[in-house]
Write a structure and sequence with these properties.
Elements (H helix, E strand, L loop, with lengths): L2 H6 L16 E10 L12 H15 L11 E4 L5 H9 L5 H5 L5 E4 L5 E5 L5 E8 L3 H16 L6 E2 L3 E2 L11 E8 L1 H5 L3 H10 L2 E4 L12 E6 L7 H47 L5 H16 L8 H10 L2 H8 L5 H19 L1
Antiparallel strand pairs: 1-5, 1-8, 2-3, 3-4, 4-5, 6-7, 8-10, 9-10
Length: 354
């Protein structure tokens, strides 16, 4: 897949697939932080040393494949304009830090966009591997195999007592961040999320917004991930997260059932009002669009709306972000211009489904 395709296709190929519990869990991710053992970490490395890391990945892995992950595309951040960087962030292929702050950063992205390797982010290597729905164990298995593949050519910075060494102490040990992206509208409507988030934090997990650390939970989408990487095995970290996510799935389903039973007509009205806003608005801000898309997605899951697929909503959640809107327009847009374009794009896309 070329850079142009990464930029122009809002929804990654893997995200078009259905996964377990996909009515609530949108995706599962495993991220591994690694560093070369003989090169200073990015926060201390000089330009020449960082360039050495970049050149290594370009030479060794560009156009290569591993298992189902074919034809890795190498992209240097310096070759991208701000809009193109933002698009990759909106698709979760790179982090905001790699986009905005990394010195001499780059990325490798597989053809199906299921694997991305961020180069010279906070660490030399940050591998991300995604699966649709609730598939943490499968994601861990594939990420471990990919890690072994990299280790055939790379000596990782590793300490027998501390494990993998990383720039940030919170990643030392396994270097693993396991996370799931969850759509939790009913728990939000019933004011239960404000109570659950502190309880989840006490279990060594963290609840963040759609783009991870420092981001806001828009459209009732929350990212749940581990905070502790030292003193636990990779399996223990995934098992702990899996246990909490299973409870959240059950509570979300119970909350949906409760709302349907107690306020069914009000919920149905809310869902179709949101659909009406999306289908007819001429101007719409990103937060309002995300809220309405969340309502419509819930309507699909509950069987109120049968004419749309969840795939179209996954696409629109990304397609209506500022970077994609400007990429489609091929020009910088003011906030007001983006709101007009966003509304037109949603109307056009929904009409294609009818």
């Amino acid at each position: 897949m070329s850079l142009e395709q990464f930029m122009n296709e809002a929804i990654s190929p893997w995200l078009k697939e259905e996964g377990p519990d996909s009515d609530i869990v949108m995706s599962s991710r495993i991220r591994l932080a690694r560093n070369f053992d003989h090169i200073p970490f990015p926060i201390l490395a000089g330009q020449e040393e960082l360039e050495q890391v970049v050149e290594f990945f370009k030479e060794e892995y560009e156009d290569h494949s591993f298992g189902p992950y074919k034809d890795f595309e190498f992209i240097h951040m310096s070759k991208l304009n701000p809009t193109e960087k933002r698009v990759l962030v909106e698709k979760h292929l790179i982090s905001p830090h790699l986009s905005d702050h990394a010195k001499n950063g780059a990325t490798l992205i597989s053809q199906n966009e299921q694997v991305s390797v961020m180069v010279n982010e906070e660490d030399h290597i940050r591998v991300q591997l995604y699966f649709p729905g609730f598939q943490l164990e499968k994601a861990l298995e594939q990420a471990s195999d990919f890690d072994d593949w990299l280790e055939e050519k790379i000596n990782f910075a590793f300490d027998e007592k501390r494990g993998y060494l990383t720039s940030c102490p919170t990643n030392v040990g396994t270097g693993l961040r396991a996370s799931v992206m969850m759509h939790l509208p009913a728990l939000t409507m019933t004011q239960q999320m404000s109570r659950l988030i502190p309880a989840i934090n006490q279990l060594g997990l963290v609840v963040r917004g759609i783009y991870g650390e420092g981001s806001e939970a828009i459209g009732n989408i929350f990212q749940i991930s581990n905070q502790i990487t030292l003193g636990k095995s990779e399996k223990d970290i995934v098992d702990d997260l899996k246990s909490v996510v299973e409870q959240l799935i059950e509570q979300e389903r119970n909350a949906r059932q409760q709302i349907v039973q107690q306020n069914g007509i009000q919920l149905e009205d809310k869902i179709f009002r949101s659909y009406g806003v999306l289908a007819n608005s001429r101007i719409i801000e990103s937060k309002e669009a995300a809220k309405c898309l969340s309502d419509v997605r819930l309507g699909i899951d509950l069987g109120y709306i049968n004419s749309l697929s969840k795939t179209i909503l996954n696409e629109l959640m990304i397609l209506t972000q500022p970077g994609f809107l400007q990429q489609y327009a091929q020009q910088n847009l003011s906030p007001d211009e983006r709101d007009v374009r966003r509304a037109a794009l949603i109307r056009e896309r929904l009409n294609l489904e009818i």
